[in-house]
Design brief:
Length: 455
């Protein structure tokens, strides 16, 4: 797909509408940028993922961090939230609220979660559904979730008074050692053994890293030689522990904030297509293991930043493709199964919550998920919904071997996992936790092609 030099274009391809907006190269364009952040930690006592125990300790404040990029004719927003997920209409609410604050269209706003498992699960519709049944499991107050959107929007609005000229974009890349590894360890008979985010089995930890994307990618916006913000992209589940009532931005947040303190430059971190990638090979759940993971990720950020090569910003464009993904309806995954999960008082809180979220996702089955891409010169920032497997990230990069492609997943996570079709026949954990049917792979890949491939 070409990012055409036109303000707005509607195209129909294979029954799917998508929109493009762009700022074409011209003299004396005043590109400007602001950064914003705010604390989005829920109040103590709020049940948080993954055990839904009441929040008892705030080890780290959970942050929303983002940028507003003004191209001289349009504004674009990228925001990363230290939450586990934003689903369905809650994700839409965040995008719409931030868009209003920025004075732009919601389609020009990408909100992704970092996906820590020591943070809230944002699905206000599912929480309201739980409020209608007897003896519901503990869950966040929908008002707490929705007030967070207003809080982030206010931080964004205030940042607009401090927009700075930006004329350079820097691209950097570095290999990260001993952090990410596949969760899907293949056995000799072709079956899958799950290597969770924390793993104490020496034999399982000794298995190879498997299919991952080992690179940290960093995009820096600068004013002359002065960096204004660095945006990092790396791909692994961002968790070293989970299940206890503690809020933490975990090792990615630790590395991000340490980098910000070192450089005195605003730092943002996005998680890539980490649906089947964890740190379990290098994490035994100990505090020491978490410190090592944070240190290795920080080293990757430093090296990626150090490798940065700058060039003048010539043009900025934004593309979107909405896709309707097929809902799973086979035995054990139909609507009645989701309701039974929600109602079963003998089930774990997380299982009952998952049932409610699955019911909500089914109700919005005909509502598209939005894919978007911000292009700066020949660099692409691709924003995807759901908990995509890493194959989608590698596929995205293969579409533009001539370009710099950074990928953020965990947009609207109403999908649950977005598996490859092959994963359903292979087995393993991810196919048991997706709300989508086989066939989603082709639709998502076609959408990615439309955003990245020039014709």
């Amino acid at each position: 797909m070409r990012f055409f030099n036109t303000k707005l274009l509607f195209i129909l391809i294979s029954g799917t509408f998508f929109t493009l907006s762009a700022c074409h190269p011209r003299d004396n364009v005043d590109f400007r940028l602001s950064t914003f952040k705010c604390d989005v930690t829920p109040p103590l006592g709020t049940p948080i993922y993954s055990g839904y125990e009441p929040l008892a300790e705030i080890e780290h404040p959970l942050l929303a961090k983002g940028i507003v990029l003004d191209s001289g004719g349009s504004r674009y927003v990228l925001c990363a939230l230290d939450w586990c997920e934003l689903n369905n209409s809650t994700h839409t609410l965040f995008r719409e609220t931030l868009a209003k604050a920025a004075g732009t269209d919601p389609d020009h706003v990408a909100v992704q979660t970092v996906h820590q498992h020591t943070a809230p699960m944002g699905d206000a519709d599912a929480m309201r559904l739980l409020d209608t049944i007897d003896d519901p499991p503990p869950h966040p107050d929908p008002a707490v979730i929705e007030r967070s959107a207003v809080k982030v929007a206010e931080a964004l609005r205030k940042s607009l008074g401090n927009m700075k000229p930006v004329d350079q974009v820097g691209l950097g890349k570095a290999r990260v050692e001993k952090v990410a590894a596949t969760r899907r360890v293949k056995n000799e008979d072709g079956s899958i053994t799950v290597r969770w985010s924390s793993c104490t089995d020496p034999g399982l930890r000794a298995e190879p890293e498997g299919l991952i994307d080992p690179y940290m990618k960093t995009i820096t916006f600068a004013q002359g030689e002065l960096p204004l913000v660095r945006i990092h992209y790396y791909t692994t589940h961002p968790q070293s522990f989970y299940g206890d009532p503690r809020a933490s931005y975990d090792f990615p947040g630790m590395a991000r904030q340490a980098m910000e303190q070192e450089e005195s430059v605003f730092q943002i971190y996005f998680t890539g297509c980490a649906g089947d990638v964890t740190a379990g090979k290098y994490n035994d759940r100990s505090p020491e293991a978490r410190d090592r993971l944070a240190a290795r990720l920080l080293t990757g950020m430093r090296q990626s930043a150090a490798s940065t090569k700058y060039e003048p910003i010539q043009d900025i464009s934004w593309g979107t493709v909405p896709v309707i993904l097929p809902i799973r309806n086979d035995q054990g995954f139909a609507s009645e199964d989701a309701r039974a999960e929600m109602m079963n008082q003998d089930s774990a809180h997380s299982v009952r919550l998952s049932g409610a979220m699955s019911m909500v996702s089914r109700e919005r089955a005909e509502t598209p998920y939005l894919l978007s891409a911000l292009r700066i010169n020949k660099a692409f920032i691709l924003n995807l919904p759901g908990e995509c497997m890493v194959a989608y990230q590698l596929f995205s990069q293969e579409q533009r071997p001539d370009a710099f492609v950074a990928v953020a997943a965990y947009g609207d996570c109403g999908t649950g996992y977005i598996c490859t079709d092959e994963a359903f026949s292979e087995g393993g954990y991810e196919p048991t936790a997706t709300r989508l049917a086989p066939g989603a792979e082709g639709i998502l890949k076609n959408g990615i092609k439309e955003l990245l491939v020039e014709k």
